[in-house]
Amino acid sequence: MLEVINDFLSGKVLIVLIVGLGGYFTVRSRFVQLRHFLHMFSVFRDSLRNSSDQLSSFQALMLSLAGRVGAGNIAGVGIAVTLGGPGAVFWMWVTALVGMASSFFECTLAQAYKRCDPDGQYRGGPSFYIQHGLGKRWLGMVMAVLLLLTFGFAFNGLQSHAVTSSLNDAFGLSTTWTGVGLAALLGLVFFGGIKRIAAVADLLVPVKTLAYIAVSLYVIVLQFDQVPEMLATIVRSAFGLDPVFGGLLGSAIVMGVKRGVFANEAGLGSAPNVAAVAQVEHPVAQGVVQAFSVFLDTFVICTCTALVILLSGFYTPGFEGDGIALTQNSLANVVGEWGRVFISVALSLFVFTSILYNYYLGENSLRFLIGDNRKAVLVYRAIVLLLIFWGAIENLETVFAFADITMTLLAFVNLIALAMLFKVGLRLLRDYDAQRSAGIKVPVFDARQFADLDLDPKAWPVPNPSAASEKAQAAQPVQR
User: What is the pTM for the complete model shown?
Assistant: First the structure.
C-alpha cells in the first residue's frame, strides 16, 4: 500500500508541483535565480561583517548546506542513475533550476515572517508564514507535524543507516557500535543548541564540500576527453534519444525529479527554517543566498557524483545494487581501493551534518506546536538519538517509502502556501530591486512600508532615519 501511494504522489503529484510551480515562480520573477546570481557574493561579503549575536547570512547558508549536502548527493544520485539511467541527471538539473526560484521565495518569506523568541533568537519557517501570512494556524501545525515526522524522525534514521552501512562495507565496522558512536557524538552537539550546531556546520561543511569536489574533479580531469560525450549522453537519454537508454525515459524523469528534490530540498519547506534565523538587512538578501545553495548542491556536487559514476567504466545499464555501493565502486575503479574508503569518510561527514540540520528542523517544528517547553525538547532529543541508533541496525525500506510520502505532502502544503503568498514575495523582491536600481548597495527593509502584513516588530525594528529615507526614495518608482 505504501508503495502504491508513494508511486502516485512522488511519481505524478511531486513532478507537477515542483516543476510546474517552480517554473511559474521563475517566469513571474523574471528568472530571479539568474538575475541575482552574481549579487549573492556581495551578500556573503557583507554578512562576514556581522557582529551581532544572531547568525549571519553566511552561517545560515552553511547550516542549510549541512542538510542539503547529504546522503542524497552520493546515494541518491547513485539510485537515480541506476533506475533512470544517465538521463535522470538532466532532470535533476531541471528540478534544481526551477527549484532555485522556489527556494528563493520560501526563504524570503521565512525571513519576512520570522519571530523573535524570548531569548532574543529568531525563529521562522513555513509554519510561521502559513500562520502569519495566510492566517491559518491549523495548516501551519500540519506543516510542522510533517516536518517533524520527515526530518526529525524518518530522515535521521535513513541517514544513520546510510553511513553505518557504508562504514561496514569499507572497514568492516559493526553497525551496532558505529550507531552508538554516531548517536553519542550527535548528542554532544544537540545539547548545545542552534549556535553549537551552526558552529559545527561552519567547520565541517566547507571541508566536506571542497574535499569531495576536489576528488571528483580529479577523476573528471583524468578522463576529460570523455566528458563532452558523456554530457551529450545525459541530454539524449533525458529525452529517450539514446538507443541504449531509450526505454528508461519515464524512469529518468521520475527518478531525476524525486532524487533531485531529495538532494536539494527546494520547495520542501526545510531550508526556510534555517534561513529565518539569519540577521540580514532585507528578507530578499537571504533568499538570494539560499537559491545559490540549491545551485551548489545539484549543479556542482550531484553532477560531480554523476560524472564519477558514468566515467568510471564500472556502471553498466541494468546495474543491480544500492546507490552507495555504485558510487564507492565507481571511484575505486578509477583511483584504486582508497576511493572506496574516501566515499565512506565523505558520506560520514555528509550524514553527520545532515542529521544536525534535520534535528534542528524537528526542534523548530516542535517549538511551533507546543511553545518553549524544555522537557518536551529533551524528550525529542532522546527519541532522535534512539532513532539514529535504530536506523543504524535495521532495514529501512518501509521507512524510506514512508519518508517519500511525507516529503511529497510537505512539498504539496508548502508550494500551495507559496503560491498563495506569491504576491507578497513579489512585493518584497520589487522593493529590493528598486533600492538596488537607485544605487543603494545594501537595501534596507522598512516594515512600515508593509504595515498590512503581520510582521514582528522585534524582528524588523524601524531602520535608522537615513536608511529609511533612502529606502523610501528607492521605492517610489515602484509605488507609482
Answer: 0.86
> Confidence class of residue 49 from pLDDT cuts 50, 70 and 90?
low
- Measured in degrees and rounded to the nearest 5, phi and psi for residue 122 equal -85, 145
Long-range (24+ apart) CB contacts under 8 A made by 190-197 are 190/356, 190/359, 190/381, 190/384, 190/385, 191/381, 194/55, 194/121, 194/277, 194/360, 195/55, 197/63, 197/356, 197/357, 197/359, 197/360
Read off the amino acid at residue 298: T
Q: What would the grid cell of residue 431 be?
A: 522593493
Integer angstrom CA distances of residue 170 from 173, 181, 324, 366:
8, 17, 11, 37
- Cβ-proximal residues to 12 (8 Å cutoff; 6+ apart), any chain: none
Q: Measured between alpha carbons, how far is residue 77 from residues 100, 130, 263, 308, 352 in Å?
A: 19, 32, 8, 11, 19
Sketch the domain layout of the chain as residue ranges: 2-44+58-474
* 470 pLDDT above the threshold of 60: no
What does the alpha-carbon distance between residue 75 and residue 2 come to, in Å, rounded to a whole number?
A: 22
Contact 26, 98 (CB under 8 A): yes
The whole-number pLDDT of residue 238 equals: 87
The fold of the 2-44+58-474 domain, in CATH, is: Amino acid/polyamine transporter I (1.20.1740)
